[in-house]
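cron nightly-structures :: item 1 of 1
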Amino acid sequence: MVLISVTVITLAYRGPVQRYVAKIQNATADALSPLQKDVSSALSPVGNIISGSIHYRQALQDNQELRDEIAKLKAEHLSDANLAQRLQELSALENIPFVGSLQTITAQVVDIGPSNFESTMTLDQGSHSGVAVGMPVVSNDGLVGRVISTSAFTSSVLLINDPTSNIAVEINHPINTLPTTTSTTTASSSTTTTISSPNQTTTTTTPLPTTSLAPPTLAIASGEGNGHDLVLSLVPNGVEIKQNDIVTTATLQGGIFPAGIPIGLVSNDSQKAAALQQSITVRPLANLNSIDYVSVIEWLPPT
C-alpha cells in the first residue's frame, strides 16, 4: 500500500500524464478505502486504551492531590486546636487560686517519659530561671509533682503517680448542715411558703441546707505508675469516705508540699470487716499524660 501511494504521488507531478494520474489516484483511493477502515477500526481500541490510561493516571493524580489537600486542612485544624489549648493553659496559669501569694515560674513541658518503672517530665526551665530541686510543680487543675533535678536550662519532675511518690494528704469531706432556727430568717437561709384558705392562713418556714467541711482525714497518697489512680493508705475503717471527696496536700510541719494544693478526687472506696484500714483510690485532677505548660512554685520544704 505504501509503494502504491508513493508511485501515485510521484506520477502526480509528471505534467503530461496528469489526467491519467487523476484516474489512477481515484481508483487507488477506492481500492485502499476498505483497508484504511479496517486499520482504523483495528487501531481504535488501542487508542481508547491509551486515552483511558492517560485519564486514569490523571484521575489518580487528582485524587492524590485532593487527599493531600484534606490532610493539609486537617493538620491546620489540629494545629489551631492545639494552639487554642496551649493559650487556654497559659491563661489559666496566670491566676491559680490555690497558689495564693507564692511566686511561680511558668515552664513548658518538653518531654513526658512515663514507663512502668518511672513517671517523669522534663521542663524547659532550669536553675538559670530560679528552678530548684524540691519545688512543687502544678497545673491550673492541681498538683503535678516536684522537681528532682535541674540543669541550667531544664529540669526534671517526678510525677505524683510515680511508684516512688508518697505524699501526706488530707481528705476533705463536704457535708450538708441545717442552720439553727431563730425567730429572724433571711432569704439566703430559708424559704417561706404561704398557704391561704377561706378560714385561715398558714406560713411555713423551711431552712435551706448549707455546705461546710467536716474535719479532714489524714492519709498517705502513693503513686501506682502511669495510667493508674493514686492509692490512699492509713485511713482506718469506720471513717466515712465518699466518692468525689477532694484530696489536698496536708497541713503538716515539715511537709514536702505547701498545704492545700488539690491532688485529686476519691474515685473508689471499699471497707472490709477484717481489714484495719480502707482501700481508697484517688483520680488526679491534673492530666499527667497530656499537658503543655505548668507552674513551678518558688517554695522549698523547710530544712
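cron nightly-structures :: done
Helices lie at 2-12, 18-93.
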